[in-house]
Amino acid sequence: MTGKQGIENIVQQIRDILSQIEAELYRSPLELYNGSSIGQHFRHIYDFFQCLSKGVQAGVVDYAQRDRDLEIEQNPLSALVAFEQKMAYLLTLEEQMPIRVRADLSPVSDASRPEYPSSIGREITFVHDHAVHHLAMIKIGLQSEAPQLLRDKNFGVAPSTIKFRQQEAN
Question: How far apart are CA 150 and CA 17, in angstroms?
Answer without folding.
Answer: 8
